[in-house]
Structure formats: C-alpha cells, structure tokens
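User:
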Amino acid sequence: MTPESAIANPAGITAGGPPPAAGTALGAGSVAALAVATHTRPMWSEAFPMKTEALPTKTEVFAVKAGKTGEISLLGAIAVRRSRRRSDWCQSLAKAAWAFAGFTLVEVLVVVSLLSLIVLALMAVFSSTQRAFRASVTQTDVLGGGRAAVDLIASDVRTMTPSDGASNGPVNFFSADNNFNYFGVSSLAYTPLPQSLPGTSNQRTNFLDYFFLLGRENTKWVGIGYAVNSANNAQLYPLYRYYAETNLSTPPVVLINNFFSLINNGQWTNLNLVLNGVVHLSVSAYDDSGYQMTNTYQLLAGNWVTNKSVLFYPAPAASPFGDVGFMFYSNAVPAAVEIDLGVLEDRALAHAEALSTYTLRTNYLSSQSGAVHLFRQRVSIPNVDTSAYQ
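Assistant: Predicted structure:
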C-alpha cells in the first residue's frame, strides 16, 4: 500500500478482503472503498432472479458521498443494508405470488361444468348397473323358487300308488280346473288370465288346476294335494300344499274328502304355503306310449280301446280353455304326469298387489307375459300297471 492510499484509506479496506473490525473509524476513502467492496458480492436479485423493483445496491442509504469525511459504524451499515434488502425481497416475492395465485370465474365455471357432466355420466352408468343387478337377483330368486316348487310337486307325484279299491271307490289321482265345482268346491272360482305375447297378436291363457294324489308309506296312506288360492287379494296367486296321513285300516277316501273340505271352506291356514305369484298350474296324464290321456278312448297298438277305472271331464265342463280334468281310481294310475307351472316375477307381483281393484290388476297382468317364467317337467310313475286301465 502506497502512502497516498494509506492516507486516503487508513482502514486498509480492499475489495474482497475481510471487513474492518467493529468500532473502526472510517474516513472518506474508507467509506468509498467499503461501497466498492459491497459491489463485488452477489446481490439478492441475482441469486433469486425475479422481475421486481430495484433494490438498493450501494451504501448511499447513509447519504455518504465520496470525498466527505465522517465516521460510521461498519457493522451498523451492513446490518441496515441487509435488513432493507430482506424486506424488499419479501415484498417482491409476495407481489409475484399474488400475480400467479387463484383462478378466474370463467375457469371455475368451466371446471364445474365438466365435473357435473362427469358425475351425471357416472350416475347413469351406476343406475343402469344397479337395475341390471336387481333384475338378475330377482330372476335368480324366481327361477330358484319355481324350480324348487316343481321339484317338490314332482317328488310327490312320483310316490303315487294305486289304492286297489272298488270301482268309483278311493281316488288315486284327481285334477280339475279351479272353476270346476267338484265335491262342493266353489271357493276356487276365478277368471283365467289371458296375456298377449310380445311381437304377435296371439295370446296365451294362464289357468289353474287343483289336484290330489294318493300315496303309501309302509303302513300309512298319504294324501297330498295342491291348490292356488285365486280369491286372495293380499297375496296374489299363493300356491298351497295339503298333506295328511291315515292308517291302512282307514279307507283312504277320507283324505281327498278332507282336502276338498279345507279348500272349499277357505281354511288355508291348515295348508302349507309353497310359493306366491303362481298364475299358471296344470297337470296332464300320459299313458305308457307317451300319449296324453284326454278321454276314455285310447289308441293302443293301432286300435282304439276303452280305458277302465278312469273318468275324464272334457272341456268346457272342466275348463273353458281346453284343459281336461280326470280321476284315476281303483288300481289305475297314469304312466307319467306332466307338470306346468307359471310364476310371476317379484316386481310385477308387487306392482299388481299394490293395485286396488281386480280390474286394474287384470289389465296390468295381461300385458306382463314377459314377467312370467314357465316351468315344465314330466314325471314317470314307478307304480303304474298299464293293464289296470286298458
């Protein structure tokens, strides 16, 4: 350091050098050197590039001019300068954040509209999926209930046994339409339900049969019967099962008489409920050649023969829709029996039950042929003796 520089800068401050000690007296030259020294360090605006207002970069904040003598605390100058820079930088950062924060009203409306469309689409998909699931569950319940009912009837029919009674004595197998008043049975009177078939002008008619069969278990006669209470308005078309036993010493005709008495007097609580919504129930008798037995004349080996121990009730006496009633007695039973069962779906059944009058229910059900599930099964009778009725 030259003598001139020492006089001008007695503190010996150099650019990039260490700062003077606290309390060092600074001359004019030292103050200028201090200002130059501060210019050589990186500024805050350069370390964090941002378009902000101009930050103070010199020590003019003290109103110190080069060439003017005076004394100032170096540490105080640096502290005040840094405090000013931090304050200005924070304000600039807050202004920048404010400039880029939030959304406009148009942006918010666009987002809300898009989200609404997405939610509506998801709700439509969910609703259709839920309807399909409910329909599948309902169909599964109806199919399961219908199959169980047909299997129960088939297992009972398979136990049919001849009574070996005298002519016009104990009945082995009886079937008639609900409108056929036999043995004083009049409480089952009803109107068959016609339904239009989709896509055609044709109609199918649902009718109801009540029937009884006789079986034998060891030393007991067993009577089993089925009937649909077509007059019930609380639960539409409930199917009931009758079951009774008696000793072999007792004439089995009492079993069928008891069955007729229960349904004629409306004592349905003494019967077992099998299934609701049975709009169609019929049984048909077949001979050992596979022909349906509809009258006392039967084609056997190319010749017409007269069936014995069998009575038939042809239409319209038994049914105005062509279903034939019959009675097998003595030692005659059919070789096979075909069971037809039509069950209404739960939703259609619940809707029909909610209607107040019979006319409204009939008008509604007449257009619900697609809601009726049909079950058919042909059961062979092991205890048949074809010579008994030929």
